[in-house]
Amino acid sequence: MTTGRNAVRVGLLGCGIVGGATARVLTEQAATLSERAGVRIDLAKVAVRDLSKPRTVQLPDEVWTADAWSVVKDPTIDVIVETIGGVEPARDLIIEAARSGKHIVTANKELLSTLGEKVMGAAEQAGVDLLFEGSVAGGIPIIRPMKESLAGDRVTRVMGIVNGTTNFILTRMSETGETFEAALGEAERLGYPELDPSADIEGHDAAAKLAILASLAFNARVVASDVEREGISKVTPEDVAAAHELGYEIKLLAVAEESEGQVSARVNPAMLPRLHPLAAVRDVFNAVFVVGAEAGELMFLGRGAGGGPTASAVVGDIVEIARNVATGGRATGCTCYRDKAQMRPPHEANVRYYVVLSVLDQPGVLAAVAGVFAAHEISIASVRQEGIGEEATLALITHVGTEGRHDETFAELETLDSVRSIDSRLRVVGTAEA
Ligand code: HSE
User: Fold this and answer.
1) Residue 152, exposed/middle/buried by CB under 10 A (0-12, 13-18, 19+)?
2) Scanning 90, 127, 161, 248, which has the fewest C-beta atoms within 10 Å of its C-beta?
3) DSSP string, 330-345
């Protein structure tokens, strides 16, 4: 069935890295995209803040405007593509676009991971499509597979490397032995971090992406503030070297899982066995590892940021909407039919730890340390002692236990006279146990 439409008119908000690449693909590939969609796709308007700024894409003068509101209200526009980013004014523009009957494509992870319910509710109410493939892991197709291809499965875990900047830094630290600061400097030189690097380094960017992935995986809304978060700035070259010796890589992992009706979601640096497929994800690459009850383990790998990769996702969404406009179809709407996720209290999450202690090298110290673990019902999987003389280093890996019991164990260890300091503690993920 077709609706007899011969063109779908697109209004693009923002023409930065992602918007500019989107405009480029829409114009360069216009004929092919129109064939794929079954209807012509016209880039009708592009709203930018500063009309005098030089642009990478050449478009007729009448396409450009500085008034985003006139684009969302324009009755001749069918699809609004929001690439401004951030919560405001993107939220108000998207809600107004929905109310004006326009379909929406957005790559805005900040907005969806905080006010997703509001913007998706506005789209649902208005009967328009809202697609967001570009919001997580740039060019990796992950939203549609989670929403549609895995709709017949039960996802139990999603685990990903979803921040390219931190993966670049940790790759440098792993391959050259350099410090976090030196690797961050290199990332900055190459222009990888966000304007505010703490968005990457402290895990905010990964937490926003994980909230979106977890909402799709478990059909229940998870917001960015539900995600437990720790960044990578405390990872040292010594941690990396010790991880290597034990057969691990350190990665900033975003992990969400569901058990007994409760969801747990966290972003933190973690030791991952070298043989795990995610351990081989280097440089700025992203990857999402999904465990389905039926499908088993799946991995999606690719470039998680940048103009071209994100435009690939955004334009794919535009083509899907254009097909729907042409045929009178609809995209899959919000899949959070269970509404708000019931989050597992963080101290009840089941985790494993690698912990390094500086201890006095005296009789009974190992027994005292082991006694503290035993008292809190945390089982030790392995212990290594290094150093001779007055002080030694103990590196332990635990079996699975709750975060709360691990916290209590570490707090009590710090009170022992024989323990000088806890030098490092990192979660261990991706083993048969956790
Ligand atoms: N700053 C992000 C990253 C890209 O380094 O992966 C945008 O989400």
Assistant:
1) exposed
2) 127
3) -------TT-B--BPP
Which CATH entry fits the domain spanning 347-428: 3.80.10.10, 3.40.50.620, 3.30.70.260, 3.30.540.10?
3.30.70.260
Sheet (strand 64-65) strand order: 64-65, 40-47, 7-13, 79-82, 103-106, 130-131
User: Using one digit for the tens of pLDDT, what is the confidence trace for 114-146?
Assistant: 999 999 999 999 999 999 999 999 999 999 999
Q: What is the mean pLDDT of residues 208-236?
A: 97
In the reported structure, the alpha carbon of residue 164 is separated from the centroid of ligand 1 by a whole-number distance in angstroms of 6
β-strand 401-402 against 296-303: which pairing, if any?
A: unpaired
Handedness of CA 311, 312, 317, 323 (dihedral sign): positive
Could you identify the atom of ligand 1 that is nearest to the CA of residue 162? Answer: 6
Of the pLDDT bands very low, low, confident and very high (cuts 50, 70, 90), residue 408 is: very high
pLDDT of residue 76: 96
Q: Catalytic positions, please?
A: 209
**Is the bond leading into 54 cis (omega within 30 degrees of zero)?**
no
pLDDT digits (tens, 9 = 90+) for 29-68: 999 999 999 999 999 999 999 999 999 899 999 999 999 9
Neighbour tally for 397: CB within 10 Å? 19
For the cut 60, the answer to whether the pLDDT of residue 1 exceeds it is: no
**Same topology for domains 7-139+307-327 and 143-303, yes or no?**
no
Q: How far is the CA of 234 from the centre of ligand 1 (A)?
A: 20
Residues with CB under 6 A from ligand 1: 163-165, 192, 194, 200, 205, 304-305
Specify the pLDDT at position 41.
98
Please state the pTM of the whole predicted model: 0.95
Q: What average pLDDT does the chain have? A: 96
* Residue 255 alpha carbon to ligand 1 centre in Å: 17
Q: Report residue 280 as tokens.
A: 């081989």
Whether domain 7-139+307-327 has CATH 3.40.50.720: the reply is: yes
Which protein residue's CA is at the shortest distance from atom 2 of ligand 1?
A: 163
What is the residue-wise DSSP string for 44-71? EEEE-S-TTS--SS---GGGEES-HHHH
Gap between the Cα atoms of 434 and 432, Å rounded: 6
Domain 143-303 has CATH 3.40.50.150: no
Domain range summary for the chain, segments of one domain joined by +: 7-139+307-327, 143-303, 347-428
